[in-house]
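Sorry, can you check?
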Amino acid sequence: MNNIFFRLTKMKIPFPHAIMTKNNKNACGLLLSVLFLFGVVKGIAEPLKEKEHHLISESKAMQQEIQVYQDFSENAHRDADRARKLSELRSLQAALPDMLNTDKIVKQLYNKADDYDIVIQEMKSLQSNEAGKLVWDAEFFGTWNALLCFLKDLEEQAPFTRLNHVRIYKSQKDNKLIMQAHINIYYLSDI
């Protein structure tokens, strides 16, 4: 074993520059300069990439913080709006009657119509699909101003009354104004 080691040390190995030609030396120099340039670029680019990733993550964190603050400011307004709407709903619910006496409501409508010189020709109850709502189909006769005043008073004074499908036209026989409407009266329902 000693012999093999001794032989390897005594052996003459030619030095690379002795066997290199001029073209090989130029290629080797070019290769070394490319490797050096690559190392310099890599040494500069890596810290810049790390800095870029760090800045991107910081900007994302800042965007998330901004979004949290925006949501908070919007929620403050939303909560105030929600509280105001809930208060309005409760006041409306307090104003709604629990039950309606239909005979009494019909009598009130006839009395109101008499106050404005309006004639109720026909009034019939319709089936309502909604709980807490009474619907009537009605036909009235009267002058234009009397009908408008009657409708205004009906919506303002009666217990949450709304008119739907109002149709006003002139009678062919006696030239009177006729109004047909669906009258919706709302009340508080458990359903």
